[in-house]
Specification:
The protein is mainly alpha-helical. Helices cover 46% and strands 8% of the residues. A 3-stranded antiparallel sheet has the order 1-2-3, covered by helices on one side. A 3-stranded antiparallel sheet has the order 4-5-6. α3 crosses α4 and α8 runs antiparallel to α10. It is elongated, with a radius of gyration of 27 Å. The N and C termini lie far apart (65 Å).
């Protein structure tokens, strides 16, 4: 595989404290060295002059100043969609919300000052290059799946803009032509290490050191494959005990937004585990905390409080 040539460097003209880049023998002055505006202009010039990206994407019949700036669309996207849509069951920002903010922060830093109709596949790839570069500088490289996921967030952002008639449809279509990073094709990103299940032997050795509730929860997960957030919200009213096999229907679960159903089947072993908890709140936090307090008091009767 031939190595892609490196783009011209962002350089410092010390006599006037200006940033400058030389592209095809011509110097382009970018403003004050180290400023965000100069780095943004540098990235745009690399996309347009060095990578031979088109200066504009031809869009419908709209005038050049009728489409919003990318920064304006980001503000609308956050206030009208993200702030209301990406919340957990407690009404707090979800983990996905944090990833969206980070991806859009990069888009703001690099291309926030241009209009949405000026964004396309070339600039999208420049944005990805910038993300890869930042990953190398900050932590030795992001994972390939992390970069692909954040680029998907950018695509979804422009898709929402098309839906709201704030972005030309050609822009979103052009982003769809950019393929995801493939395994082994980009040396500056790392492959994510798969997290394997904990061996059953280790689980069995751990159970005696857990509170009765936590031990039951771990064993239920072991027998059913439930997610942690499904077992922690288990309630008696969510368990159908009319049949030989009990059926647990979680109040909420990870994929419910996809209009899917979720049923967890509880056989004889799971039913035996739950027998001790049928007459009291299942896995309640106060009971777990009280057990831990009693255990610590017995184990360390003379422990002094910190002043």
């Amino acid at each position: 595989m031939t190595k892609k040539p490196a783009p011209p460097k962002y350089r410092h003209q010390k006599s006037r404290n200006l940033a400058v880049v030389r592209i095809h023998g011509k110097d382009y002055y970018l403003g004050e060295y180290g400023s965000a505006a100069s780095r943004q202009l540098y990235t745009q010039l690399i996309a347009e002059k060095w990578a031979n990206a088109p200066a504009n994407i031809v869009v419908q019949s709209a005038g050049p100043n009728q489409w919003p700036l990318i920064d304006e669309l980001i503000a609308r996207y956050m206030t009208k969609h993200v702030n209301h849509h990406y919340l957990d069951r407690d009404g707090k920002p979800s983990e996905r919300y944090k990833h969206i903010r980070k991806a859009l922060r990069l888009l703001h830093d690099v291309f926030g000052a241009i209009r949405v109709n000026e964004f396309g596949s070339k600039r999208f790839k420049v944005l990805r290059e910038e993300m890869i570069r930042q990953g190398v500088e900050e932590q030795g490289g992001y994972s390939r799946s992390y970069v692909n996921d954040h680029m998907s967030i950018i695509k979804n952002f422009f898709r929402w803009g098309v839906e709201e008639e704030q972005v030309p449809v050609e822009v979103h279509q052009s982003l769809g032509t950019v393929q995801k990073l493939r395994k082994g094709r980009e040396g500056r990103v790392r492959e994510k290490v798969k997290i394997l299940p904990v061996p059953v032997e280790v689980v069995n050795q751990t159970l005696p050191h857990l509170s009765p509730q936590l031990a039951t929860m771990v064993q239920l997960q072991l027998h059913t494959g439930m997610r942690p957030d499904e077992v922690t919200i288990m309630r008696l009213c969510d368990i159908d005990r009319s049949g030989e096999v009990w059926i647990y229907i979680p109040e909420s679960f990870k994929t419910e937004h996809l209009d899917l159903s979720r049923q967890v089947y509880l056989g004889p072993k799971c039913q035996e585990l739950l027998q001790d908890w049928l007459n009291r709140p299942i896995f309640s936090v106060p009971v777990r905390s009280r057990w831990r307090l009693e255990k610590d008091t017995v184990a360390l009767p003379h422990r002094k409080r910190r002043s």
